[in-house]
Design goal:
This protein is of the alpha/beta class. It is built from 14 helices and eleven strands. A seven-stranded parallel beta sheet has the order 1-6-7-8-9-10-11, sandwiched between helices. The chain has a four-stranded antiparallel beta sheet with strand order 2-3-4-5, with no helix packed on it. β9, α11 and β10 form a beta-alpha-beta unit. It is globular. It starts with a helix and ends with a helix.
Length: about 375
């Protein structure tokens, strides 16, 4: 019997697996609320939980080793002030935001102040919440983790966090963009700290003899027309730091694959990411003008997750079938794990999503 670990590794190595892993991205809370009204049992809930628990996907079919590369401790979510239909709250990234009361519907928050707006803010955040030696960044009993990882029949994964995305969350896109122009040394200093924080975690794992198959990253640094940071800055600041981490992962932990989550139009950064050792990309959003066929022409070795246009599921059965036809030749090249190219949107009916799942099972050959 093929194990999930063997299936994933053969897929990423393009070695002709029995079938690709059945992964999905998730669904918005509003989507799940709609599905409950349309027949999804109430006990199935959670943005990330509905897919594996109800639809039987293999999203959690991995042995994940805890690696905290973010704020520790994070900020406490708290309501600071109530203003009629609006509230002022502090979010988990330390930003002060105004938003509509959640019970009145979803809204895009208006940012009043971010956690980092000055160098003094950064120094305080670094001192209080970004200490690489804070307890809890990696598991306490690394010997037991090493034993379980070595015996695991599931892919062994670790996380390396983010070099740009976390900083953008703490500063806000506009403030960070101004800093790139006004104080580039500061931006580079922050990225260096994030790289070293990841390295500190991974050194502890490697010293314990732990090996890994896949390292996960998160950036979300592209919009629908291109990156939020210029490719020149990306190459100068980020590629060497990625390379430091990915080289260490390969040489000291036997890690072959670095999987990076970035929404938007990624074509301008795909090449530099490959140079930096990032070799798996997702969700590869169709609506954001990312094109898997172009990506493979320009970077034949790149591995792809996602790239099934979520808008097709909204339209219905014919569109769902056409989308599987569109990605068929790309899927045939190997090294491609198809799934919806972001969270399933609230204008998707449960009936349409069930049909998508049935067709996908046929497409990937899962009973």
């Amino acid at each position: 019997m093929v194990t999930p670990r063997e299936r994933m590794m053969r897929t990423l190595r393009r070695e002709g697996p029995d079938r690709v892993p059945d992964l999905e991205f998730g669904a918005w809370e509003q989507t799940i609320a709609r599905w409950h009204d349309e027949g999804l049992p109430k006990e199935y809930n959670g943005v990330w939980d509905v897919m594996p628990k109800y639809f039987g996907t293999e999203d959690w079919d991995s042995f994940g080793i805890h690696c905290d590369c973010g704020l520790l401790p994070g900020f406490k979510h708290e309501i600071v002030e109530e203003r009629g239909d609006h509230i002022i709250k502090r979010d988990g990234d330390g930003a002060l935001v105004e938003m509509i009361r959640p019970e009145l519907g979803a809204s895009i928050p208006r940012y009043i102040r971010h956690a980092v707006e000055t160098r003094e803010d950064w120094e305080r955040l670094k001192r209080e919440r970004l200490d690489p030696d804070s307890p809890g960044r990696v598991p306490e009993d690394l010997g037991e983790v090493r034993r379980k990882a070595a015996l695991s029949d599931r892919p062994v994964t670790v996380g390396a966090g983010s070099l740009y995305g976390f900083i953008r969350n703490w500063m806000g896109f506009e403030n960070l963009s101004y800093a790139v122009h006004d104080d580039p040394e500061w931006v580079e200093e922050m990225m260096e700290h994030m790289a070293e924080l990841a390295m500190a975690n991974l050194r502890k794992l490697a010293a314990a003899g732990i090996k890994a198959d896949i390292c996960s990253w998160w950036e979300d640094m592209c919009y629908n027309t291109g990156p939020l940071l210029s490719p020149d800055h990306f190459r100068r600041w980020m590629v060497p730091r990625y390379r430091r981490v990915t080289d260490f992962l390969r040489d000291e932990m036997g890690c072959e694959f670095n999987m990076l989550d970035c929404d938007g139009h990624i074509h301008h950064l795909a090449g530099p990411w490959m140079e930096a050792g990032i070799n798996v990309t997702f969700p590869l959003e169709v609506a954001a003008n990312s094109d898997g066929y172009r990506l493979r022409r320009e970077h034949p070795e790149i591995l792809i997750r996602g790239h099934y246009d979520k808008r097709a599921i909204i339209e219905g059965r014919d569109a769902i079938d056409r989308e599987f036809e569109r990605i068929g030749p790309l899927f045939g090249q190997g090294g491609f794990i198809p799934h919806v190219d972001h969270l399933v949107s609230p204008d998707t009916s449960l009936e349409n999503y069930v049909y998508y799942r049935e067709q996908k099972m046929r497409f990937i050959g899962k009973a």
